Amino acid sequence: MANTTFSGPVTSQNGFIGAVTGNVTGNVTGNVAGVVTPSILQAPTSTSALLGGKNNAVNTTDKVVGTTVYNTTTKTFYVAQGTSNTSTWIDSADGTTTITPS
Hints:
It is built from 2 helices and 5 strands.
């Protein structure tokens, strides 16, 4: 198999095989096989009041099942249970405490 070095933006319709080193800017979609070594994982933050507001950006922008947000009010992570702006958030610390936007 040949090796190729890229510089600048690269788009692949068929995927890549091999090691990717350096920084990745943008979204990674599809399956990632192998070892992923992040230097830092930083979750978005919100408050209980903002999570409870159906018109707040946390509920209206890019919300998908599994979206995880650090709640600075409770100091725990909340996970979205649906995609709508009124879908419930559940506290991952206890699995029972919820916030339902209204």
